[in-house]
Structures are given as C-alpha cells and as structure tokens.
Predict the structure.
Amino acid sequence: MIKYHPSHELLDTFVTGQLPASFSAAIAMHTELCEICRNKVAQLESTHATSTFISSAADEESDLTADMLFNDWEIDSLICSITGNDEIIHATAAVPQAISFNHTEYLLPRALQHIALGKQLNVGKLTRSRLDLNEGAIHASLLHIQAGGSIPNHTHKGTELTLLLEGSFEDEMGTYNKGDFIVLNNKHTHSPTTQQGCLCYTVVDSPLTFTDGIAKILNPLGNFIY
Amino acid sequence: MEDDETQQLSTCLVKIGNARDKVAFATLFKWFAPKIIRFGIKTLNTEAHAKELLQETMTKVWKKAHTYDDTKGKASTWVYTVMRNVSFDMLRKIQSNKEDTISDDIWPMLDSDENSNEDAYPDHLMSRTMSVHVDQLPENQKQIIKGVYFNELSQEQLAKQLDIPVGTVKSRLRLALAKLKQYIGEDS
Ligand SMILES: [Zn+2]
C-alpha cells in the first residue's frame, strides 16, 4: 500500500512539463504504480489544457498572435509541408530492460528506458549508479541497498527525493514500501535501514552530511550517495 | 458556445486520424497556432523557440492523430499533452544540452488498443490491487504466482527454472493462493 505521494504543487508543475527531468521521472514512476496520482495528473492535464487553449482570459491576456510571427503565406506553406508527409507515428510498446544489482534482476521502469546509466559503484552494502541527465547540481541515481544494509544518520542542505522501486526500508519516521514517494529537506535527519534489501531512485540537490559521531568519518560517503 | 468549439476540435482531430483530412488539419492548425505560440514564448522565452514548438507540435499532431480516442478525452487536452511533451524535450535541450527526447517515456502515448502493452507490462494483466497483494507474499510464493500467472509457465517449467521439486511448486502455489484469498476477503 503506497502511503507517500508527491505534493499537489509537484504534480501541477509536472503536468506543465517544467519540472526537471530527474523529478519528472520520479513522478512518472510513482504514477505508474499509484492510481490516485494517475487520476490527479489526468485531471490537472485537462485543467491546464482548458486554461491554455479554451478560456477567453488566455486570449485577452496577450495580444500576440501567430499572425505577428507568420504571415498567411508562411502559415499555408507550413501546413502544406506538414501534411505533405504521410508518415505515421505508432505508439510503441517498449520492451522493458532489465538491470542487475548484486546478482538480482530488476525491471527498469519505463521512464528510465532511454536514460544512460553510469557505472555501478559499491561501498559496503550500497551500490549506486548515476543517471546521465546533466541537470547541474541535481543528481539522480539508482541506489541499491542489500539486505541488512543501512545509511548512517544524515541530513541534507537541500532536498532529497526517494522513490522506492522495490523492497522496503525503515527510518525514524516509519516504514516505506514499493511506490512510496518520499521528500525530505534540511529539517530532517534520518538513518534508513533495510531488512530485505531495496532498490531506490533518488534525486539529491546537494551532498549529504553525516551527523553522528563516528559516522562523520563517513562524510566522503555523502558525496558517494549524492 | 464553448461546447460547440470542443466538439468541432474533436471532429477535426478524428478526421485527421481516420482520413488524413488536410482541410481539418488546416482548421486545427489555425485554431491552435496563436495559443501554442503564446505558450511557447512564456515557457521557452524566445520567438524562435515558440515557432519551433508550434511546428514540432503540429507535426506530431498530424502523425499521431490516429491515437486520439474521442471517448477518452477532449481534443484540446490531447493536443496540450503533445505540446507539453515537445516543450519538455526542448527545455531539456536548452537547459541541459541533452537531445534525449525522453518525454514519451515519462508521458507514454498509448495506442487506443492498449492490449499490445500487456506482454511488455505483465502487471496490467491483473488489477493493480491484486498485484499489491502479490507483493505482500513471501518471496518464494511471489515467484511462483508470477511465474504461473504472469509468465504463464507450467508448474513443471517453473520447477525446472527454480531448480526445486514440482511438489514444492504445488504446495507454495496452494499457500500463496490461500493467502491471496485471505487478503481479498479482508478487503471486502
Ligand atoms: Zn500517489
């Protein structure tokens, strides 16, 4: 049972296509598993379509029209060149790719099918593979934690998003299951552990800082997870 | 008035999808063009990008109109999602210098016959709630259920694949089914 969902604001920005790809992919993977959010997204798409295309306010708000950028002749030739091509695009049913972490096979979610994955790096029971999205300080990764593994108590300067793809983990705030969409910010510190192992998709916009005595030695690990 | 317009747009889009109707396309183009240009300038900042957005979006509308199902939603919503996807990929190109066009993976466009996807996504064979229950099963029972019901393997094939006796497959399957019935019973 999914207990944690993206906020309304996130879903709303997602629908307009203006959320960074790393966050958009997380929401896409969540909505694939979550009917509630899938319905919300459909609703929001219809709302945005109406305000962009139908509502008369949208027409009056700006006096710019296509006529100012194109003359009639250009519009007609554009229409002709588009309709002159008889090609049709078929919706393709992607064959899901598998990805293997520590000898366990997982199906790669559809949203990640065409994103290049970096080399897997290991530290203890953690394995990380960075996604090549090139979004500056925002880093997205697949993070696999083997059964019994944990991440020491840590905090973040920015935001940490975790989408649980397989398995479950626990922290001070509770237990998380497949599909849970968890956003933490600099107010939270936590130390997740997993009994059965898990695969997460994570988005982090600044390195993690470990807060507990001995774990401070692990601060290089903060950069590893980031 | 607004309903008339909605109906008209939808009729045009269906005509394009069914009959490659160029007149219907011209109507649609002229109706959406100023609005797409306005959206493009707002989200992509320059007139050049807005023009590109218009051209790309309307090209996709022409080539994908056959996937529009007028019983499932309004034409304006469908065109909005096509435009949004193009805009997303353009933003990525501008901001991250990436030409990976991943919008169709993030917002998949499904043909009206979604059945073709069932093979690729076995989850769709069962209702979402059922697969949630399957996920609650112990790993060894889950394997059996998925093998038998999702991958349609025989119990013998499954035994061979997992390298366990057929009897074990049978008993795990029995246990798993009993548990699933229990889960469903609890829900209702
Ligand atoms: Zn949700």
